[in-house]
Fold this protein.
Amino acid sequence: MARRPYNRFDKVEVRMQEGDYSGGIYGGVVTRVWNHQYEVRMTTLNGGDGGGPLTVHTSYPFLQPVPPRIMVEYKQFDLVEVWHRRGCWPAVITRATPHNQFHKGLADGTRLFVDESELRIYQAFHLGDPPMWHYYKL
């Protein structure tokens, strides 16, 4: 399997696996690389002590490049990621209304009513030669 190495100063997204942020996808910048590990300074999360951006240590499987912006017409049952709690969360469009507003169901059961600007189509990063993004649309 081909690996896409991340370098210092690369913009990435981190799939969080701990605490209140578990399941969310948050933006950050790689600040240090060592022994297949990465230190990432988060761009949307602050440390608990109020002392600036949160820094996390993570490994390759939990990092992905920032996905390209794809413009689509959203419909009911589309798998999307919704901007919520300073990160992107997987969701399904359960209902669409006039004026491009959508009712979303998150995996944890939370229901949201959001504007189209807070959505992006769900995309999966597949490692291969070359690595690439795939998006899923019904």
